[in-house]
């Protein structure tokens, strides 16, 4: 099974880290390393199941997070407490990287916006403009989180005995299944309701089908607020 997923909005591990910081409403200058590292590691474990992009660079950052977390957990002797306070916070270099990356990303978006604005200044024959829908605010990292939560529910509900067979479901068949399920639910249903099997490969193919439909703008994912249920609905 091979299905490459690459979304241009998210370019690597620092994007994932910034996404988690925003989602968990963490102060970037006072990062709780235990919570952030745990969330990050869970996320890349799920990404490895889904085979989303190359995980090498994500694992490198995971090692960095674990190292920082370990340094912060080391006990400080009473006599050395004053010296420790004067030493550099182990999170400082990470915060600097994140802030610098965020600045570069904002600058890149501003340059892109300027380029698009300049393009409008060239004279051209009038053309019929199609209505443009709003950009999706939901992103692939949110969807991976929803898949991760669904897997946790599956583990609790999975029968003790299950017959294991080879799965031959294609993305096209999974797409048809998702659309049929949405039709039966008046065009919208909870994300986890689209997964009706305990077979891991079929679960993955259903996830890819949802991404495929989102890419083609046939469906969209919605969530009222952080940690709420995710819904998939037809456009």
TrEMBL record:
Q: Which organism is it from?
A: Savagea serpentis
How is this protein organized at the quaternary level? Answer: Component of a cohesin-like complex composed of ScpA, ScpB and the Smc homodimer, in which ScpA and ScpB bind to the head domain of Smc. The presence of the three proteins is required for the association of the complex with DNA.
Where in the cell does this protein reside? Cytoplasm
Q: Signal peptide span per the entry? A: none
Please indicate if the UniProt record lists Kinase as a keyword.
Answer: no
* Keyword Cell cycle attributed: yes
**What family does this chain come from, according to its entry?**
Belongs to the ScpA family.
Query: What is the recorded name of this protein?
Result: Segregation and condensation protein A
Q: Which GO terms describe its cellular component?
A: cytoplasm
Q: Which UniProt keywords apply?
A: Cell cycle, Cell division, Chromosome partition, Cytoplasm
Q: Main role?
A: Participates in chromosomal partition during cell division. May act via the formation of a condensin-like complex containing Smc and ScpB that pull DNA away from mid-cell into both cell halves.
What the entry lists under Gene3D superfamilies is as follows: 6.10.250.2410, Structural maintenance of chromosome 1. Chain E
Q: Name one GO biological process term.
A: chromosome segregation
Tell me which InterPro entries the record gives: ScpA, ScpA-like_C
């Amino acid at each position: 099974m091979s299905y490459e997923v690459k979304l241009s909005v998210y370019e690597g591990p620092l994007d994932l880290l910034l996404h988690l910081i925003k989602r968990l409403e963490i102060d970037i200058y006072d990062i709780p390393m235990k919570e952030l590292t745990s969330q990050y590691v869970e996320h890349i474990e799920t990404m490895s199941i889904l085979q989303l992009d190359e995980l090498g660079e994500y694992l490198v950052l995971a090692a960095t997070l674990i190292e920082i977390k370990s340094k912060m957990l080391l006990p400080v002797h009473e006599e050395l407490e004053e010296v420790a306070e004067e030493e550099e916070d182990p999170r400082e270099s990470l915060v600097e990287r994140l802030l610098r990356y965020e600045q570069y990303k904002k600058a890149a978006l501003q340059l892109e916006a300027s380029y698009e604005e300049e393009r409008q200044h060239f004279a051209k024959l009038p053309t019929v403009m199609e209505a443009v829908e709003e950009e999706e605010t939901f992103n692939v990292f949110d969807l991976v989180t929803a898949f991760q939560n669904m897997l946790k529910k599956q583990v609790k509900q999975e029968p003790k005995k299950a017959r294991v067979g080879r799965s031959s479901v294609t993305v096209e068949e999974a797409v048809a299944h998702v659309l049929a399920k949405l039709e039966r639910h008046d065009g919208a249903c909870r994300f986890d309701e689209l997964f009706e099997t305990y077979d891991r490969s079929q679960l993955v193919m259903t996830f890819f089908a949802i991404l495929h439909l989102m890419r083609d703008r046939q469906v969209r994912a919605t969530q009222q607020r952080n940690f709420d249920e995710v819904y998939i609905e037809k456009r």
